[in-house]
# Entry
Amino acid sequence: MGIKAILKNLRDGVAFAYSWLIICVLTVSLINGQSTITVSFLLKLLILCIWGALSFCLCFRTRAVSRRGFIFSLTCFYILFIPAEIFMFYMMGIFQENGSTILWIIFFTIIVLMYLISLLIDMLIMKRKAVDYTEKLNAYKDSL
# Structure
């Protein structure tokens, strides 16, 4: 993949992630009764989105990593992104309130569940599809 395509994917990823996170932050702020969001919080959120989009592009859009399969790409993404996400959440003050132990447990449970769901989808659904596609490709080659 060329540098132009990587930059385009990075731009699209940052725009998508940042806009959705802003919507989520505004929703949570309204629910909690907060009337202000600081510029430093928005900048930290932007940095998090840039790192996430860059990690995604490196893990899922480059040939060197994606050749090894989806689970390898997903694992690389988790290794690159989750430490930065934890650091940025801590810097934003998300996990510094009362009950932060419960929030951390919920956070890690969500991460582990998403990873397990991805593994199950890859092992159960995608492997079966790969077998079907291979059979159809072999049948097409035999018909030639």
